[in-house]
Automatic annotation (TrEMBL), chain A:
<dbReference type="GO" id="GO:0005802">
    <property type="term" value="C:trans-Golgi network"/>
</dbReference>
<dbReference type="GO" id="GO:0030133">
    <property type="term" value="C:transport vesicle"/>
</dbReference>
<dbReference type="GO" id="GO:0000138">
    <property type="term" value="C:Golgi trans cisterna"/>
</dbReference>
<dbReference type="Pfam" id="PF04893">
    <property type="entry name" value="Yip1"/>
</dbReference>
<keyword id="KW-0812">Transmembrane</keyword>
<dbReference type="GO" id="GO:0016192">
    <property type="term" value="P:vesicle-mediated transport"/>
</dbReference>
<keyword id="KW-1133">Transmembrane helix</keyword>
<feature type="transmembrane region" description="Helical">
    <location>
        <begin position="121"/>
        <end position="144"/>
    </location>
</feature>
<feature type="domain" description="Yip1">
    <location>
        <begin position="102"/>
        <end position="274"/>
    </location>
</feature>
<feature type="transmembrane region" description="Helical">
    <location>
        <begin position="229"/>
        <end position="250"/>
    </location>
</feature>
<dbReference type="GO" id="GO:0031902">
    <property type="term" value="C:late endosome membrane"/>
</dbReference>
<dbReference type="InterPro" id="IPR006977">
    <property type="entry name" value="Yip1_dom"/>
</dbReference>
<feature type="transmembrane region" description="Helical">
    <location>
        <begin position="257"/>
        <end position="281"/>
    </location>
</feature>
<feature type="transmembrane region" description="Helical">
    <location>
        <begin position="205"/>
        <end position="223"/>
    </location>
</feature>
<feature type="region of interest" description="Disordered">
    <location>
        <begin position="16"/>
        <end position="38"/>
    </location>
</feature>
<dbReference type="GO" id="GO:0031267">
    <property type="term" value="F:small GTPase binding"/>
</dbReference>
<feature type="compositionally biased region" description="Polar residues">
    <location>
        <begin position="25"/>
        <end position="36"/>
    </location>
</feature>
Length: 316, 236
């Protein structure tokens, strides 16, 4: 024990000596030129000083992370490196965040345990893009499969689904977090004890929570309506649970009415998104495609088409 | 003559440069490059004048550019670890490929807007906007590749998919059926894999190893969407 204390003490002394010896001007100019070097120096300094004062490891960890975050936001708004700080993630980090969004646990805060004060925009952006394209592709594939079962359905590629899916997914993943963030900021003004998430963190929570829908949409290719609904409910449950568990520590301090209303609105919007996807992209026979055949083809195909009508009603 | 007078001064100013830079004095370190830049543009202009393209015939100029584009096509079709595609980039090849692809994807009858494949403008926007997004993404992740180099590689690597589109149009002339679809599926999958392999061979080295997957995934998505557009194309 004593030897360990001595060791740390010596280390500090060395560090202070080093600091005293090196002129201040030189170090600051160097850190301006080379950001990584300055970054490392600050992290070591803050870790040491907080470790000496605070016994709790988590506190110092948090403080160091905060310091790190302040360091990161140094570059100006119009510089490229400012935006690079939003994409400062590794493959393992992104995979860890996706795993965290897939397996929500009560009391396991996504922001605290996975983002750790470093929200990224890579995940939200590419998860949204993937979801939009997967929605459009599988929406088309269901039509192809329906045509395979029932040759009377005329299939033609529906490219407009890409546009619709892209616009709706991106709007949901950016506008809802914006509204949520604004609301929480307003509530913070009312109730001072609340510490809301930043806008980027909110976007990150929503972006990663949409990941569950990608496998769900692929599984919706199975043309069994009750199975589709089960998969939909499962994915929605997982995603909404992740959102609620993450938002709960923030809204807990607020009044019970506001907290309940906010969480139910969040879950309701999420359910609306899933329902919208299901009803718009996965109708087994959209009405647009039923209209043209009677004009082109003769009467027999028109009769053959009528038995498919109940099928289209069944899942929706 | 002017260069002859200035060039002896050049080594004289060049030698104290590291000495002043060591002092990190702003006023001096700013002075030196100004003096250096006076001589350098003159020399480069003189050197350029020797190999000027002004005197050669138009045919030579066009043939040289076409040869460069053709050489890059060969590099895509037979991807090796070589940086010809990266060193002298051009956007002629991507433009040709993109326009060809969009023209072939255009359906004969533009009946209703809601019920049809992608229009010319949509293909054009997907290809260019997608390539720009992927490039920005790889730059933001910290890749050491220039913006247009990446655009050039992504554009040239559409070549296998354009070939797939050509084959699909030829196959579609035959009678439709499951065999027809299977042939098209096979062709598109092979060409899709080819595009991915070619583009990653050129682009993957620009990223640090722990971020390579993050940079390659958007490329995969990009070519996947283009392949899907090709596969679902039906002329009517």
């Amino acid at each position: 024990m004593a030897s360990a204390d001595e060791l740390t003490f010596h280390e500090f002394e060395e560090a202070t000596n080093l600091l005293a010896e090196t002129p201040d001007a030189a170090t600051t100019s160097r850190s301006d030129q080379l950001t990584p070097q300055g970054h490392v120096a600050v992290a070591v300094g803050s870790g040491g000083s907080y470790g000496a004062e605070d016994e709790v490891e988590e506190e110092s960890d948090k403080a160091a992370l905060l310091q790190e975050k302040q360091q990161q936001q140094q570059p100006g708004f119009w510089t490229f490196s400012y935006y690079q700080s939003f994409f400062d993630v590794d493959t393992s980090q992104v995979l860890d965040r996706i795993k965290g969004s897939l397996l929500p646990r009560p009391g396991h805060n996504f922001v605290r345990h996975h983002l750790r004060n470093r929200p990224d925009l890579y995940g939200p952006f590419w998860i949204c893009a993937t979801l939009a394209f997967v929605l459009a592709v599988t929406g088309n594939l269901t039509l192809v499969l329906a045509q395979r079962r029932d040759p009377s359905i005329h299939y033609s590629p529906q490219f407009h689904k890409v546009t619709v899916a892209g616009i709706s997914i991106y709007c949901y993943a950016w506008l809802v977090p914006l509204a949520l963030w604004g609301f929480l900021r307003w509530r913070k003004g009312v109730q001072e004890r609340m510490g809301p998430y930043t806008f980027l963190e909110t976007v990150c929570i929503y972006g990663y929570s949409l990941f569950v829908f990608i496998p769900m949409v692929v599984l919706w290719l199975i043309p069994v309506p009750w199975l589709q609904w089960i998969f939909g409910a499962l994915a929605l449950g997982l995603s909404a649970a992740g959102l609620v568990f993450t938002l709960w520590p923030v809204v807990r301090e607020d009044t019970r009415l506001v907290a309940t209303a906010l969480l139910s609105v969040v879950v309701l919007l999420h359910a609306l998104l899933a329902m919208g996807c299901k009803l718009y992209f996965f109708q087994s026979l959209p009405p647009e495609n039923m209209a043209p055949p009677p004009q082109i083809t003769s009467l027999p195909s028109n009769i053959a088409l009528s038995p498919t009508l109940p099928q289209s009603m069944a899942p929706s | 003559m002017a260069e002859a007078e200035e060039s002896p001064g050049d080594p004289g100013t060049a030698s104290p440069r590291p000495l002043f830079a060591g002092l990190s004095d702003i006023s001096i370190s700013q002075d030196i490059p100004v003096e250096g830049e006076i001589t350098i543009p003159m020399r480069s202009r003189i050197r350029e004048f020797d190999s000027s393209t002004l005197n050669e015939s138009v045919r030579n100029t066009i043939m040289r550019d076409l040869k460069a584009v053709g050489k890059k096509f060969m590099h895509v079709l037979y991807p090796r670890k070589s940086n010809t595609l990266l060193r002298d980039w051009d956007l002629w090849g991507p433009l040709i490929l993109c326009v060809t692809l969009a023209l072939m994807l255009q359906r004969d009858s533009a009946d209703s807007e809601k019920d049809g494949g992608p229009q010319f403008a949509e293909v054009f926007v997907i290809v260019w906007f997608g390539a720009v997004t992927i490039t920005l993404n790889s730059k933001l992740l910290g890749g050491n590749i220039s913006f247009f180099q990446s655009l050039c590689v992504l554009g040239y690597c559409i070549l296998p998919l354009t070939v797939a589109m050509l084959i699909c149009r030829l196959v579609l002339l035959a009678d439709p059926g499951p065999v027809n679809f299977m042939v098209r599926l096979f062709v598109v999958i092979v060409m899709f894999a080819w595009s991915i392999v070619a583009s990653t061979a050129f682009l993957a080295d620009s990223q640090p190893p722990n971020r390579r997957a993050l940079a390659v995934y958007p490329v995969f998505l990009f070519y996947f969407v283009i392949s899907w557009m090709i596969l679902t194309f039906t002329p009517q």
